[in-house]
Amino acid sequence: xxxxxxxxxxxxxxLEAGSDNVSDTDPQKVGIQPxxxxxxxxxxxxxxxxxxxxxxxxKEILRDEEKANYILLRGISQVPSIPSFEDAxxxxxxxxxxYPMYRGLARLVGMDTPPLNGDIKxxxxxxxxxxxxxxxxxxxxxxxxxxxxxxxxxxxxGKIEEFDSYVPDMLELAPDVLIVTGDHATPAVMREHSWxxxxxxxxxxxxxxxxxxxxxxxxCLRGELGIFxxxxxxxxxxxxxxxxxxxxx
Length: 249
Description:
- 32% of the residues lie in helices and 6% in strands.
- The chain has helices at residues 45-61, 85-89, 100-108, 120-129, 143-149, 153-172, 217-220, 233-240, and strands spanning 93-96, 136-139, 178-180, 201-203.
- Helix 5 (143-149) packs antiparallel against helix 6 (153-172).
């Protein structure tokens, strides 16, 4: 979808662990030559050379194409062994996402990942139709990130405002807990991902609240949660949903 694709390498026999230790070929900058796939050590040379052959073959095939004439490889990896979301948290989960990459990530942890078309409205409609079938809904909006990478501040702000307009519809579904956040910051002024803390809002009956007056980066710095690792979000969600054991003795 858009500029992204996925490729699967299959070998006659299983590869040893760590064979995915091969560098990206994307220099992450415009006007710079693509990089070569470099193995972490000689044991992983085979995967790097196969990746290099793929790039050269694609270059030949795409030479006269207008929309794309080269491919860049990022995130070379083996399928990881991850506990399922249901095993880890006791929740049957579904990914409500249009962009295929996020459905793929969700599938790795055992979420259901139906294909979807459209945008926020279509995702919300799908969520409503399947509300009784699942315990946990991961709903993803891609364009906020895309506009940030394009340096399009107005487009990014407009997409956030559009999402805001659907929040009342989400609250009408009476979720035990509603969390709004992102996986990373993408400031339009930087046109790329950054290290800045990502705002998190948790809506639930037992949230104290009252410190922040708006859902912005600066206001969230004053919030009761402080700055914390993202892996703490799910335990907070489970606690606010009354799905954890008693705290303390």
